[in-house]
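User: Okay, second chain of the day. Same drill as before: sequence in, structure tokens out.
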Amino acid sequence: MQQLYQRILNHQGVKKHFLICFIGILLGILIYYYLLLNGEKVDQTISIGGVSAAAFCGVFVGYIVYVVTLKLDQLIPWKNQMPNRLAIGIVSSFVISLFVVLGLFYMYNEFFILEPDFFSIYKQTLINLSILLFILSIIYTLIYFALYSYHSFVTLQIETVQQERTQIELQLKALKSQISPHFLFNNLNTISSLVFEDTVKAEHYIRRLANIYQFTLNSYHEKLVPLAKELDIIASYQYLLDIRFKNKIHWTVDISETHQKSMIPPLTLQMLVENAIKHNELTAENPLSIIIKTVDDYICVENNLTSAPKKIESFNIGLTNIKERYKLLINKEIIVDHGLNFSVKLPVMI
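Assistant: Same drill. Structure tokens below.
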């Protein structure tokens, strides 16, 4: 029971309503005392009924002002219209609280004080009350703005940290696919064969492989890299694949100079090329054709479809990984077309 009680008290909604009630009761009673001490011809006898009515009035006004404030947050966002929101917030809080308090005060007079000429007798009191409510409206709006700004800042920081963490996790998964034992084993086998056949090719192969690994290890923590740099790595990757598969892959790379200056998540093109290799059977009679080109504001990686290999080793992170990274970085979807050819269009990021 005690744990349930603590959970209820720690709940944000409970804290919010408790705070509204507490402040409403406090201000209601303080204004009630103000009217007793400073009002003309006001019965200065403190009664339980008067205090209760004042407390109820304070809570009632507090909830009305709070609901109106939330509505204003939707209609006039702080982020886009801060001066207007601040001014309208002060005016609306003042007008609402003034009308409600005056209405309740008038009813209190009609039922308990029974003064016939209410507005004439309490003219100065009502003026002082209006000034007091206006000051309270300014203080409330400024405090609400400060709390709202702090909450927005904290929320933004939390979301930023979460996005950074997700981005790092996605890039680590991409890194995992590039340093997999299978990838390394295939390349070591190729190197061991080349050492005896052609030492020059073996040296070039090792340098290209080292270039890929160096880029992979240095860029996994980067959100974006220049497309031109990614294309350099694709050129090294192309060299490795051409040595391994000989004439079984045909390449076409047609990227304009303007697009080469754009940015791209690291390892994106390499993952797409690797997926094309994994999911298609490569033969000299039916080679795999890989095209990397620009189409409007997209970078397109396209390949023809051949027979699917019987056994595919995959980390299941390819397209999903790329989709999630683009969603996080620019909130745009990549376009996947699985027709006669398989193509993936990546939105250009400047």
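Strands lie at 225-226, 249-254, 263-264, 288-295, 298-304, 335-338, 341-347.

User: Thanks, on to the next one.
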